Model the fold of this input.
Amino acid sequence: MPDSVMQQLWSTSHLDGGNASYVEELYELYLQDPNSVAEEWRSYFQKLPQVNGHAGSDVAHSTVRDHFLHLAKSNRRPQAASGGAVSSEHEKKQIDVLRLIQAFRMRGHQASNLDPLGLWKREEIVDLTLADYDLTDADLDTVFRTGELQIGKDEATLREILDALQVTYCSNFGIEYMHIVDSTQRRWFQQRIESVRGKPQLGADTKRHLLERLTAAEGLEKYLGTKYPGTKRFGVEGGESLIPMLDEIIQRSGSYGTQEVVLGMAHRGRLNVLVNTLGKNPRDLFDEFEGKKKVDMGSGDVKYHQGFSSNVMTSGGEVHLALAFNPSHLEIVSPVVEGSVRARQDRRLDTTGDKVLPISIHGDAAFAGQGVVMETFQMSQTRAYKTGGTIHIVINNQVGFTTSRQDDARSTEYCTDVAKMIQAPIFHVNGDDPEAVLFVTQLAVDYRMQFKRDVVIDMVCYRRRGHNEADEPSGTQPLMYEVITKHPTTRDIYAERLVGEGVLTSDEVQERFEEYRNALDNGDHVVKSLVKEPDTGSFVDWAPYLNHKWTARHDTSFDLKTLQELANKLTDLPDGLVLQRQVGKIIEDRRKMAAGALALNWGFAETMAYATLLHEGHPVRITGQDVGRGTFSHRHAVLHSQNDGRAYVPLRKLSENQPRFDIHDSLLSEEAVLAFEYGYATTTPNALVIWEAQFGDFFNGAQVVVDQFITSGEHKWGRLCGLTMLLPHGYEGQGPEHSSARLERFLQLSAEHNIQVCVPSTPAQVYHMLRRQVIRPLRKPLIALTPKSLLRHKLATSTLEELAEGSFQTVIPEVDAIDPKKVDRVVMCSGKVYYDLLEKRRNEEADNIAIVRIEQLYPFPEDDLAEVLAPYKHLKKVVWCQEEPMNQGAWYCSQHHMRRVLSQHKTKNLYLDYAGREASAAPACGHPSMHAEQQEKLLQDAFTV
Ligand code: AMP
Done:
């Protein structure tokens, strides 16, 4: 009764390739002999789409399969001719067997032996029992077709099929891949896993190598534990299989031709990875344990945050390894690693991701809990951020500090469930079975190389000690630690297994352990594949960027004629590109600006900064929400043709051999995106790398990146970074969330010349500021508060000559021809409020007041300010005027600099007064009328306090 067979087929929740393949088999039978299939199937096949006028035989199998899948998706069922009787009981059972196979593929991982401690309580999966399919033990010896089950034969007994499914899908690893929509990928996994029944044969050398790596992992921890008892090291103990896993990833990706691997990881296991994977000299590590300070580092960081670089040899050649420095904020290093990888790929013109591989190592609790994990996954296939797939490793020790996995750490079944949102395949593997770990590792590398997508290995293990070595875990996890205390190490378990298999003798096992210990005693490198004299040919030379002072002047002028030629190229658009009306007007205006017929606005000057830098050989990368157009519609670096939607980027059309100009609207993330750009900028010193916030204050969604990396990375880790953050800022009456870029936060974080904080107020200033950021070899993050209404303000304009000849002015003196002798009041300010003050002063003809703009608030230009104030010898009042409330803006953080300058002024006892909004909890008020009143008052105060 095909009708009921079909009903079963279509009602099964597992309908996909497997059942489709059964139908395909029926179809093949039908092709050979239409009478060999039940009448209703025959009737159905006869109605299938026809090719060349012939029914059936010319229809490609894929067409049949697609047709069935389409029907399944649209929830339609093939019409059976009649509700006749079952064609055969066997046929019905055959369908059940296929469903059972699908169930194992989908849910076998839930019955796998994943927990080395045996503490996971997992419910029985009824889908994996015969009873759920009305099959019984009596069917075990019946022969069924195996469908697409890749076990080397087309037919097998149910017993054989069940055995194969159990060993393949429910052994010491489990795989989640059936959520992947792409059937090619699913079949790839089936082929790879089922064909070897989840357990490839390994040679004795491979086994010995696995043991050697485990010996190294355990040996280092034991050594450190004995030599430095009670010192925090966040040991890998319990998760030692990480070391052979990494070894395999590096070696295997090297064999694919990968040339660089960038790793990100938190504390756990880091020292072990540094010594046993990257080949850091153990002696250097011991020095750190002994608290010896490195002379060339700034304030430094704890040893389990340190990065490292080395080269190792693989069968495919030398591979450069870089472990990223990172703070304690878990997971934030992942997008930094992605950015660094993308930068290396761009440098190598590696558009597929073959040459540079990212590896992200996570903890189970953090992977499940931190939102940046989701953001990073979301980036993984986007144009701006993709890196050809990341290999994620979760060191799943089943506890987060003291928070237990059950009940508290998450709501999902696995800590890795978030990865399913991008259909990443997920391997769960028992960390105490190094051979299973090796198998899934090989699959993960091969999958990433073949499909260029993220893949996750969830290594289920345990934490032999507390969160760190000074922490007592049994107080909070008593039962778990009762088991752990008695549990043999992974190395012991595996060594016993190999001795049992005759691969090694017990004496040899012991010898290996002692050899490793001796190497540590001698302070020898313990990574055999380490390249002692690495090929530095492809390294970036950072030497030109070291040891510069911010005060060193560098010429940012640019030949006027070439500038105009570049501007003309930008506005010379291809035929057929139909611009939207306002955009057309902007381009038309830019033509006039290039010809000197119109005063230059912000958009033009900013664009010319990019064009001139590109012309001089510097790549430019800009990302952020809406950057192509610009939140306030001033940039229009990406033009969208109105007739066919095509995007045209004039800055990529300057010349054939120009450097990259990358501009991408980002996904709506701040944290991961800013971290990515930090990673990119710390890997690319010769480029202008910009992240722009939609509104300035939105960077606070990425505060961790600002605090832990951008403002402190150089001093903690000696890593320079020339990242530019463009943060729209200005009090325009738009309410609390669209006014302030929280200038005070950056000024409070400013110290030791760590960053530059600038508030350019003219087009020429933004032009020279951006050019200076690249041309001056100093690599310091630039925090630039950019305007909104000034983008179109009639007074905020510049001339071509100012672009061609000028430079960035940290302080802009009074611009009107005011006699300094008459000036008794100076108002100092930054940003948009300057134009309000200027208009007021002009309206009131108050020529006793000079207005001075401080365009760089950090490093504070004390000398330049002193020079600007020097001509005013009759000063009575100096006022700092700001739009921000008193507890915000520059007032609290910058006044000491201004006072210091005033204290040295010819006029003695000059006091610095304040004109600005009252202190406020919110950055700005929400009522436009209140805003106007406050604005009026602060301008008045500037002239009268
Ligand atoms: P990596 O490829 O990241 O391992 O970097 C190789 C070497 O380049 C490092 O060991 C540093 O000496 C240098 N280097 C890399 N990035 C930076 C940076 N952001 N600032 C200063 N030096 C760097």
In short: The longest strand covers residues 877-885. The pocket of adenosine monophosphate is lined by residues 309, 322, 539-540, 542, 682, 719-721 (CB under 6 Å). Residues 1-18, 50-59, 71-86 have pLDDT under 50 and may be disordered. The chain is about 40% helix and 15% strand.
